[in-house]
Specification:
heterotrimer; A mainly alpha; B alpha+beta; C alpha+beta; A: mainly alpha; 3 helical TM bundles of succinate and fumarate reductases; 7 helices; 73% helix; C: Flavocytochrome C3, Chain A, domain 1; Methane Monooxygenase Hydroxylase, Chain G, domain 1; 3 domains; binds flavin-adenine dinucleotide; binds FE2/S2 (inorganic) cluster
């Protein structure tokens, strides 16, 4: 708890939870890639997972807590940081080298807002797959998780939302991952450039990886109808 | 080499004017002509002030002293950039050849809650002194020191300590940070001492106290955007912030207080 | 105006005994303040440079209540921060035969035998402690690979005794002292008053008992009382307007003390540094030093033909006049500062100067780059070359640097005795503000040493002795003297604001600078100095009739601050010229055209001028009176400096 009493402590916890969430993204993406292997593989994976009731509950609670802490700290940090400059500049311009790094769309400049969008995306995503809010009993007939995913991913609204969501998520983690290392105190002339590029690569992988599913399903859909 | 004759500049200035801390300020526009490209930025402001005095308007207040980039007194935001467009350069070392004829230059004070404006472009940076007071020293009294060579310092550690100690305390890091955070300043001091054996006895106490003071002063937190490093005239690197983070967590987890 | 002093003779209070025991003996005989009595004493320290910060911290550690003042927004910004080269100490770590005595001798000789032996010896003695103290504070001095301290060589010495932190030694030493000071602030033993400018000294019953200062943020005139006042306010080079000093450096504090009874010693002793970036135009506000070390590898030259206006690269070797190498074959480009400066002026006056203004000479690295390679030169001087390029937009790797001498340091200052006490009891003067250790010329890397010696290792003892001596009755700011002095300060401000003339402060200051540079600069003559005195008087009169200071006294008003400093420079400048006129000899930085040899070298007159000239103020409408402290040399033999 004392960790949360200072700006550095909060950043530290922010970094820790962020790293954990990145780790989760890796597992999640790896699992999802089984969708490309085929229905059996994916369903097998899903069933095995769902059978581990205790583990699943633990993991979900843990994940949920990490999310909540990450979000609450983000709100707190942003509020404090906003308050640290009461009068804003008439003009601002970056002094960093590199065109992207110096532009207003550089990931690090709008982490709070990209995070907020990711949160929105997360809610939609849980609404689709976990709570099935928008799908009535469309999936009731089959017990196949693959089938359920296919229905969802075919939907054009899902295509739009997931593509935007995945890209923003990629942007968010492309800064977040490297940033977490810095917050945890890892900075070294040898490793930091590697971490930096890995982080950007990770952002691309996450964005392309997660966006690929609705795109792939949309493509097969249109191929099927023609 | 006789340098080609350079054309003198005409400039439009938009300068923040604020009579005192508790009276709100505003931008005012001024025209300057015949500015030599060899002038320093502060000499250009001197000319502006001569012009203002002549016309009966009070001169623009701006902080400066050494005018050679070491005392850390000067510093304004020029067209949205702390200390202007050049890297590793203080405002006093910026020269007018960096600007083109007809340019509009927006000049603002450092803006941060912890740096209240005192007048025009002059801000109160005493928060930095208080951060140092909270722990930015080695507790050694005059006369207590052992022989200089009794404390061996590997030259690499010494170099790293010197990199950090080179901070001039100008506040550009705070001015440039979107969160008005003073982590680069604070980390430079912490890192300076963490790199030297002399700094070790008070290591934990120092970092905890300095961060607590940093937060208390109303500076924001670091979100690793690294604008500070780009604006720093002394080229202090953000690796010192990582070191600070490390020192802080180590101290927090192991401190017995 | 009151000028109450009790002592009128100049007793330097030099302890008896052999020179290497004087300081020990002096300390043994000093009275002490009992530990629990120390908190009953208040001490004011004006200035937080090396001298002030170290003194304030050390006195607070002892238990005194200290109030420290500086005009900058933070104590860390005192002008000591700008010192580049290094600090001397006779540690003899390189094993090259250095010793306290050698450091002492070099300093006395470097000062052209116009410094007080006993003080200089003490300086050399405590220098080693300074290095230890600074290391313990965490000052990152350069190290050898094995972890021991590194040294480099500096001008005027044949041993390697200069400790350094890259090109930022002054910065690091000051930050060390500043951190010690901040530690005492947090301990509650020092009260720090930044953005406060001292405007006057309060003398009660002949003793310094407080100061009047202006809060530079809200304009309030404040008074502070104490049992002793330490003046550590730096040098007055800005009387020349253009100098390597920071813009705010001033004579105000020292001058005001002078007017309250403190004698001003050797005001004309000024160091003009040969390697500075030349003046570009009328707008120039400050001159930048290029370290002395450049002359190790750079060669100084001008064209042989007065009319040769070709770019330097077109001028062949045989058309170049390497005048230092020609005139001083033994030392060549490495002659001391005063000699190099005068030689550059001589060439430029004769019409050989280069560049737009023709007030510059070349400092050429071509041969050094050819012989040693660009990398080596870059490693040695990279940061200086970078700075040069930033200011001039010329690349010194390609074209020779253009340099010219500039005012850099003032050896003169308030007269102090061995205890660093001025002629006003209770007023101690430390650092560049006093006159004591450098005679007529200062060696490189010894000002930092002196500031810290005074502050860490001398004043804490001698001030204690003064306090323990008793006779200090309780005085508070309610005393009428405080009111009176504050009213005088306020009136002066009101007067400046009410002139409402036509000329800006900068404009008048620039004119004063021109007069000083023309007549009191590198070369002085009786006629020029008399002219200067006239011109300064006229300018002073004009200032009070025609200066324009806008705004009011109740807020942050930088023009008003500057006007106050200029008003004092305008009074001080006259004394400066008078002192130069009085000294009918050439020594160190003081060169009188009337006193030179056939080949234009300085001619010192030990018979008649081996004294410290200390001036007593007699009132605004009367001439100051000169007092002489005869210098006796028992340890060193007076010799003529020759660099041929
Ligand atoms: C560019 C440059 C390079 C140098 N390099 C070297 C070097 O390599 N080695 C070396 O030994 N020396 C060097 N010197 C000389 C040396 O730096 C100075 O002589 C020395 O630092 C002076 O220290 P100080 O404490 O006496 O005064 P300063 O550091 O000048 O401090 C003066 C203090 O007094 C305060 N003050 C002044 N007036 C008032 C007032 N009226 N009211 C209140 N406060 C006031 C100021 O705020 C400041 O805190 C160099 C000097 C310059 C200019
Ligand atoms: S005025 Fe000293 S750093 Fe600019």
């Amino acid at each position: 708890m004392t960790a949360l009493s200072s700006s550095i402590g909060r950043k530290f916890v922010m970094g820790l939870t962020g790293l954990f969430l990145c780790f989760f993204l890796v597992i999640h993406l790896a699992g999802n890639l089984l969708l490309y292997v085929g229905p059996e593989a994916y369903d097998h994976y899903a069933h095995t997972l769902h059978e581990q009731k205790g583990f699943l509950l633990f993991a979900e609670v843990f994940l949920f807590t990490a999310f909540i802490i990450h979000i609450l700290l983000a709100v707190r940090l942003s509020r404090d940081n906003f308050a640290a400059r009461k009068v804003s500049y008439a003009k601002t311009s970056s002094k960093k080298g590199g065109r992207l790094a110096a532009s207003v769309i550089a990931p690090e400049v709008w982490m709070f807002w990209s995070g907020a969008i990711v949160l929105g995306f997360l809610i939609c995503h849980l609404g689709d797959f976990k709570f099935e809010w928008w799908w009535g009993n469309e999936f009731a007939s089959s017990g196949s998780e693959y089938h359920k995913a296919s229905i969802i991913l075919r939907d054009p609204r899902v295509l739009v939302v997931y593509c935007i969501g995945s890209v923003i998520l990629g942007v968010h983690v492309s800064h977040g991952l490297a940033s977490a290392f810095q917050s945890l105190g890892v900075n070294h002339p040898k490793y930091t450039p590697v971490i930096h590029w890995c982080s950007i690569a990770f952002g691309w992988i996450v964005a392309i990886g997660f966006a690929s599913f609705p795109i792939a399903w949309a493509l097969t859909e249109s191929a099927a109808t023609h | 080499m006789i340098s080609p004759v350079k054309k003198n500049l005409s400039l439009n200035l938009r300068v923040w004017r604020q009579p005192s801390a508790d009276i709100p300020g505003e931008f005012r526009n001024y025209q300057l002509s015949d500015i030599s490209p060899d002038m320093s930025f502060l000499e250009m402001l001197d000319i502006l002030n001569e012009q203002l005095v002549e016309s009966g308007e009070e001169p623009v207040a701006f902080d400066h002293d050494c005018r050679e980039g070491i005392c850390g007194t000067c510093g304004v935001v020029i067209n949205g950039q702390a200390h202007g467009p050049d890297n590793e350069t203080t405002t006093c070392q910026l020269h007018m050849r960096r600007f083109a004829d007809g340019d509009t230059i927006v000049i603002e004070p450092w803006r941060a809650r912890a740096f209240p404006v005192l007048r025009d472009l002059v801000v109160d940076r005493s928060a930095f002194d208080r951060i140092v007071q909270s722990g930015g020293y080695v507790s050694v009294r005059t006369g207590q020191a052992p022989d200089g060579n009794a404390i061996l310092v590997p030259s690499q550690d010494q170099e790293e300590a010197m990199d950090a100690a080179a901070c001039i305390g100008c506040g550009a890091c705070v001015a440039a940070c979107k969160n008005a955070s003073a982590m680069l300043f604070t980390s430079a001091k912490v890192s300076h001492f963490a790199n030297l054996p002399q700094g070790h006895p008070e290591r934990k106490k120092r970092v905890l106290a300095m961060i607590s003071q940093h937060d208390e002063e109303g500076f924001g937190a670091c979100t690793n955007t690294y604008e500070c490093e780009a604006a720093c005239p002394a080229a202090i690197s953000v690796t010192h912030i990582a070191r600070l983070n490390r020192e802080y967590m180590k101290a927090m987890l192991t401190s017995k207080e | 105006m009151s000028t109450a002093t009790e002592r009128h003779t100049l007793d330097a209070r030099i302890p008896d005994g052999p020179i290497d025991q004087k300081w020990t003996r002096c300390r043994d005989e000093m009275k002490l303040v009992a530990p629990n009595n120390k908190r009953k004493f208040d001490i004011i320290v004006v200035g937080t440079g090396l001298a002030g910060a170290s003194a304030a911290a050390s006195l607070a550690e002892l238990g005194y209540n200290v109030k420290a003042f500086c005009y900058q927004d933070s104590a860390r910004r005192a002008h000591s921060i700008a010192a580049q080269g290094g600090i001397n100490a006779a540690k003899n770590y390189p094993n090259d035969g250095d010793s306290v005595h050698r450091l002492f001798y070099d300093t006395v000789k470097g000062g052209d035998f116009r410094a007080r032996e006993a003080n200089v010896y003490r300086l050399a003695e405590v220098a080693n402690n300074i290095i230890d103290q600074c290391v313990a504070q965490g000052v990152p001095f350069a190290r050898e690979y094995g972890g021991t301290l590194a040294n480099r060589t500096f001008g005027g010495a044949q041993v390697s005794r200069t400790f350094y932190c890259r090109g930022q030694t002054g910065q690091q030493l000051l930050l060390g002292a500043y951190s010690a000071l901040m530690r005492q602030v947090s301990a509650g033993k020092v009260q720090m008053f930044s953005r406060h400018e001292m405007l006057d000294l309060v003398v009660v019953d002949g003793k310094a008992r407080g100061i009047v200062c202006r809060n530079m943020v809200n304009g309030e005139i404040e008074t502070h009382a104490a049992h002793a006042v330490l003046l550590c306010t730096g040098g007055y080079g800005n009387v020349f307007y253009l100098s390597t000093n920071a813009k705010g450096c001033n004579v105000t504090a020292a001058w005001r003390c002078h007017k309250r009874g403190a004698y001003f010693a050797n005001p004309a002793f000024t160091q003009i540094h040969p390697t500075c970036i030349p003046v570009k135009g009328d707008y120039q506000s400050k001159l930048t030093l290029m370290s002395e070390s450049l002359r190790n590898d750079g060669r100084v030259w001008v064209p042989k033909d007065v009319n040769d206006k070709r770019p330097p690269s077109d001028i062949q070797e045989d058309a170049r006049d390497y005048y230092l190498e020609r005139r001083y074959p033994a030392f060549g480009n490495m002659v001391p500062r005063d000699v190099a400066s005068r030689a550059a002026k001589e060439r430029c006056d004769a019409g050989f100067g280069v560049g737009e203004t023709q007030l510059a000479v070349y400092l050429d690295f071509k041969r050094a780059i050819e012989e040693q390679g660009r990398d080596v030169i870059e490693a040695k001087y990279g940061n200086l070359f970078h700075m040069y390029k930033k200011i001039t937009d010329e690349d010194p790797y390609q074209v020779p640097m253009r340099i010219y001498p500039a005012v850099h340091y003032t050896m003169g200052g308030l007269w102090v005795d061995y205890h660093l006490e001025s002629t006003v009891p209770g007023l101690f003067v430390l650092g560049e503000a006093n006159f004591s250790d450098h005679g007529a010329n200062r060696l490189g890397a010894s000002a930092l040493m002196q500031g810290l010696a005074d502050g860490y290792f001398v004043a804490p003892y001698t001030v204690g002795h003064h306090l323990a001596n008793g006779g200090l009755k309780e005085v508070t700011t309610a005393h009428p003297k405080f009111k009176e002095t504050a009213v005088e300060a306020r009136n002066r401000i009101e007067r400046m604001l009410s002139v409402n003339g036509k000329r800006s402060v900068d404009d008048i200051h620039r004119q004063l600078g021109n007069i000083m540079w023309e007549h009191c600069g590198m070369s002085r003559s009786a006629q020029g100095l008399s002219t200067a005195i006239e011109q300064i008087r006229d300018l002073r009169a004009e200032f009070w009739q025609n200066v324009r200071v806008l705004g009011n006294g109740d807020s942050l008003n930088q023009a008003l601050e500057h006007a106050g400093r200029l008003a004092d420079f305008l009074e001080f400048g006259e004394l400066f010229a008078r002192d130069a006129l009085q000294r009918e000899e050439s020594c160190g930085g003081h060169f009188r055209e009337e006193h030179q040899t056939e080949d234009n070298e300085a001619r010192r007159d030990d018979e008649n001028f081996a004294f410290v000239g200390a001036w007593e103020h007699k009132g605004d409408d009367q001439q100051a009176v000169l007092h002489k402290e005869q210098l006796t040399f028992e340890e060193v033999k007076l010799t003529t400096r020759s660099y041929k």
